[in-house]
TrEMBL record:
This is Uncharacterized protein. Gene3D superfamilies: 1.20.1170.10.
Length: 422
């Protein structure tokens, strides 16, 4: 303590109450432009919490998308009937079941996150809001008993001279101010720990996402590999359909031609040159050809319908697998950003807690150095208290905005629209 000058002590107190290096309290929020319902700027700004409402809603949307994937083998079969995916199982005997398991895995991990982790975004925001309200009250809200009130007493003119600090009033006020800072510091460190604990349930999902990704990558590779691929199967299927259509058209044309000949042959029977036997033979032959052509035509139409159905179900499955991959990649990016923000919040509260505990220690020594530091930096200290309160008020406003986001900000950005699955 004796190594510090009065000015240095005052500066240390001011910095602890409200850091000016931009690395503490002010980073809990950022000012953003206010946009009206028509998408136009209003010229106003408002504070936004470090956990952006849109990012939270994006994560919530992708969790909802994950919950849309089939949870059971029965659900999967309802969406993607195995009997309509013969080409798929011919190419890969186990891919149907493995795809079902991958989708069920996404559903389960999304369900677990939705239940145990997603609510913690709101809990963390509420923890920050609670502390902000406490800080505002302790710093300025209790009149003469607030830190600001005690600071005013400690910087009264009667304590302007050396030795004037040697009174019960000065010592009592400095101890009371010290306790306020100590309590705020300890509470901030507790919040940091609580936020860390709550964050772990959120960020642990990144491990689950990695497991999901490995499973999805394995499935995806089997749908888009270079050897026996489903893409190749689809091309073959489209070729089969084209051939079925061509064969059907050819059979139909042949049928119409032969039928016309057979109809005419009924007349030719009575032509003396043809004779009865000849005419009967022509009629029977052409009727047989017509029937065969017709049967082939009907079979070709059925084959075409079956192939079209198979292609439809196969392409639907591929779309869902692509959505599975997209859902996993997008939420992984969002979770990486959330992890950074959550760690930032924890560090901010940890830093504030340590700073305030140090400030408490400085305030607790009711000596001439403290008196001198408070006296020479009294204007700065008052400004820092006011700045801290203003920033904590921003935190409350931003936190309220975040906590109300579900009700009033849903769909605030295009990216919040949940992806459609199935």
């Amino acid at each position: 303590m004796s190594e510090k000058t009065a000015e240095q002590l005052g500066d240390a107190l001011a910095s602890a109450i409200h850091s000016q290096d931009g690395k503490k309290l002010s980073q809990l929020t950022e000012d953003v432009k206010v946009i009206d319902s028509n998408g136009n700027e209003t010229g106003q700004t408002k504070p936004r919490f470090i956990l952006k409402p849109s990012a939270y809603l994006d994560i919530k949307a992708y969790i909802a998308a994950g919950l849309a994937f089939p949870a059971t083998a029965e659900d999967f079969h309802t969406l993607h009937p195995k009997e309509n995916l013969k080409k798929l199982t011919e190419l890969d005997a186990t891919i149907y079941e493995d795809t079902q398991l991958a989708m069920a895995g996404i559903h389960k991990s999304s369900s677990d996150f939705n239940t145990t982790a997603l609510p913690n975004f709101r809990r963390i925001t509420n923890e920050a809001k609670q502390y902000a309200n406490t800080a505002i009250l302790q710093l300025t809200g209790f009149g003469k008993g607030s830190f600001q009130g005690l600071l005013k007493l400690l910087t009264d003119n009667k304590y302007s001279k050396p030795g004037s600090e040697d009174t019960d009033e000065f010592r009592g006020a400095s101890q009371a101010a010290s306790m306020i800072l100590l309590n705020l510091g300890e509470e901030s460190l507790k919040k940091a720990q609580t936020i860390e604990d709550l964050s772990k349930t959120i960020t642990s999902y990144l491990t689950t996402l990695k497991t999901d990704k490995d499973r999805i990558d394995g499935i995806n590779q089997r749908y888009s590999g270079k050897s026996t691929t489903l893409t190749t199967g689809l091309e073959k299927l489209r070729a089969d359909i084209k051939k079925a259509v061509e064969d059907a058209n050819e059979a139909d044309a042949k049928y119409k031609s032969d039928k016309a000949t057979a109809d005419n042959a009924v007349y030719y029977i009575w032509v003396p040159i043809a004779g009865w036997i000849a005419g009967t033979t022509v009629l029977m032959v052409h009727n047989k050809r017509a029937q065969e052509a017709h049967d082939k035509y009907e079979a070709a139409k059925k084959t075409q319908a079956e192939k079209e159905t198979e292609k439809l179900y196969m392409e639907r499955l591929i779309v869902d697998v692509e959505l599975l991959d997209s859902q996993n990649k997008n939420i992984a990016k969002l979770m990486d950003s959330a992890k950074t923000a959550l760690e930032g919040i924890r560090k901010i509260f940890e830093g504030i807690g340590n700073d305030l505990k140090e400030a408490s220690s400085l305030m607790g020594n009711a000596d001439s150095l403290l008196r001198g530091g408070l006296w020479v930096r009294q204007n700065m200290l008052v400004d820092r208290v006011n700045e801290a309160v203003a920033d904590w008020r921003k935190v409350v406003t931003a936190a309220d905005d975040f906590l109300d986001a579900e009700a009033s900000v849903l769909g605030i950005t295009d990216s919040v629209v949940p992806p459609k699955v199935g």
